[in-house]
């Protein structure tokens, strides 16, 4: 009989599984363990020392623990049932988890890669970032995401992840940070907090297809990073591709290296 996953709502329960994710420098895990955003899931909430656990934040799913344990396979089968046809990015803790993903998801799983970026606030040059904010095409302005701009971002497919993981406009105003580029009243790009964790944010950056390679992304990200530094928050970055790595390095970040992921139900 297939088991169902249980969301760990209590802090004490999340602390019991936190050791499974030890040494994983991933803000989407941190926010779930902190109870701020996302969810931590196991098969048996009462179990004192689970052998496997999942952190799910948005489209991202992190698998930790002993992949050879029967509990791990049951957990992954439950995740497959939970996802159904929904797109997800599964990140295995090790090669054994990758093998289990292939076994459970079969042809629904497509191997891919992402690129980790070092977390180091000392790399940023405020002068350089300020210069990037000023390199905008004529007629383009930068504005904070608030009020009607929050609604506009959610209404645009390419921009909705600027705010989509926050519970409401009020929640975003309280915990989120974001900058958008406007031209003639239209949103053409932006950078925002995909998630918030206690000590910072994870940056989501997008530019409308007809405005790419014009300095929009670098200007929005530079302004957002400066705002984060002023607020005492760390602007974390994780890259989906080499273009994202290049943008990060333009802003001052340093690449840490590639890591494997599995795209489930189609790569977006």
Structural class, judged by helices and strands?
Answer: alpha+beta
Largest sheet: 8 strands, mixed
Under CATH at level 1, the class of the largest domain stands as Alpha Beta
Strand order of the largest sheet: 1-2-3-4-5-13-6-12
What general form does the structure show? elongated
Oligomer state of the chains in this structure: single chain
Low-confidence stretches: none
CATH A-level architecture of the largest domain: 3-Layer(aba) Sandwich
Count, helices: 9
Radius of gyration: 19 Å
The succession of helices and strands, N to C, reads EHHEEEHEHEHEHHEEEHEEHE
The fraction of residues in strands falls at 25-35%
The counted number of beta strands is 13
Q: What is the terminal-to-terminal distance?
A: 33 Å
Helix content range: 25-40%
CATH topology of the largest domain: Aminopeptidase
**How many structurally independent domains?**
2
How would you name the CATH homologous superfamily of the largest domain?
Answer: Gcn5-related N-acetyltransferase (GNAT)
Outline of this structure?
With 268 residues, the protein is α+β, with helices and mostly antiparallel strands. Helices cover 33% and strands 29% of the residues.
Write structural notes for this entry.
- With 268 residues, this protein is α+β, with helices and mostly antiparallel strands.
- It folds into two domains: 6-115, GNAT acetyltransferase-like (Aminopeptidase, 3-Layer(aba) Sandwich); 121-252, Gcn5-related N-acetyltransferase (GNAT) (Aminopeptidase, 3-Layer(aba) Sandwich), CATH 3.40.630.30.
- The chain is 33% helix and 29% strand.
- The protein has nine helices and 13 strands.
- The protein has helices spanning 11-17, 27-34, 70-83, 95-105, 126-133, 148-155, 169-175, 216-230, 242-251; strands at residues 6-7, 39-42, 52-57, 60-65, 88-92, 109-117, 140-144, 178-183, 186-197, 200-207, 234-236, 238-239, 255-264.
- Strands 1-2-3-4-5-13-6-12 form an eight-stranded mixed sheet, with helices on both faces.
- Helix 3 crosses helix 4 and helix 5 packs across helix 8.
- It is elongated and about 60 Å long.
- The two termini are 33 Å apart.
């Amino acid at each position: 009989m297939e088991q169902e996953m249980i969301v760990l709502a209590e802090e004490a329960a999340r602390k019991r599984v936190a050791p499974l994710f030890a040494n994983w420098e991933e803000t989407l895990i941190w926010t779930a363990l902190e109870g701020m955003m996302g969810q931590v899931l196991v098969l048996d909430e009462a179990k004192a020392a689970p052998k496997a656990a999942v952190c799910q934040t948005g489209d991202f799913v992190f698998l930790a623990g002993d992949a050879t344990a029967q509990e791990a396979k049951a957990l992954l089968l439950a995740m497959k049932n939970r996802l159904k046809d929904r797109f997800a990015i599964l990140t295995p803790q090790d090669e054994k988890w990758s093998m289990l993903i292939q076994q459970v998801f079969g042809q629904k799983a497509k191997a891919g890669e992402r690129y980790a970026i070092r977390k180091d606030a000392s790399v940023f040059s405020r002068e350089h970032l300020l210069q990037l904010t000023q390199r905008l095409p004529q007629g383009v302005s930068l504005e904070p995401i608030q009020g009607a701009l929050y609604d506009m971002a959610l209404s645009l497919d390419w921009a909705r992840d600027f705010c989509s993981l926050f519970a409401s406009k009020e929640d975003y105003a309280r915990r989120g940070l974001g900058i958008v580029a406007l031209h003639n009243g239209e949103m053409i790009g932006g950078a925002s907090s995909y998630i918030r964790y206690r000590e910072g944010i994870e940056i989501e950056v997008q530019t409308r297809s007809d405005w790419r390679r014009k300095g929009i992304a670098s200007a929005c990200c530079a302004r957002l990073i400066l705002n984060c530094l002023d607020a005492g928050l760390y602007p974390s970055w994780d890259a989906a591709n080499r273009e994202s790595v290049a943008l990060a390095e333009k802003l001052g970040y340093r690449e840490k290296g590639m890591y494997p992921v599995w795209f489930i139900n189609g790569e977006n």
